[in-house]
Design a protein that fits this description.
about 100 residues; mainly alpha; two-stranded antiparallel ribbon
């Protein structure tokens, strides 16, 4: 069946090419996965820092953990890309949509 040298060489080259392509695809897959996880970790770290700094600031002003938590929760908005931003309120007494503006 595979008596011809041409057929054997063609199958040999096809096999080597297939293995090379599979190895290349695996390397790219794992490299892209690592980059994705690093970006996700950085985004989570940034979000946690934003929330923590807002909470510490509000805790210093409100002197109540529950009140500070409520204020921070109402002021933190999450964009589509996972970044947290803090809304700037014109007056601390009013925490509704009309009195707060989101920067950028």
């Amino acid at each position: 069946m595979f008596d011809s040298v041409r057929i054997r060489l063609t199958l040999w080259y096809a096999g080597v090419l297939a293995l090379s392509l599979i190895a290349f695809a695996l390397v790219i897959y794992y490299a892209a996965g690592n980059i994705f996880h690093e970006r996700q970790d950085e985004s989570l770290r940034s979000t946690a820092q934003t929330v923590a700094s807002a909470y510490v600031e509000e805790l210093a002003e409100a002197h109540s953990q529950s009140k500070a938590g409520e204020i921070v929760l109402s002021e933190i908005t999450f964009r589509q890309h996972g970044q947290a931003t803090r809304r700037v309120c014109k007056s601390r007494r009013f925490h509704h949509r009309d009195s707060c503006i989101s920067p950028g």
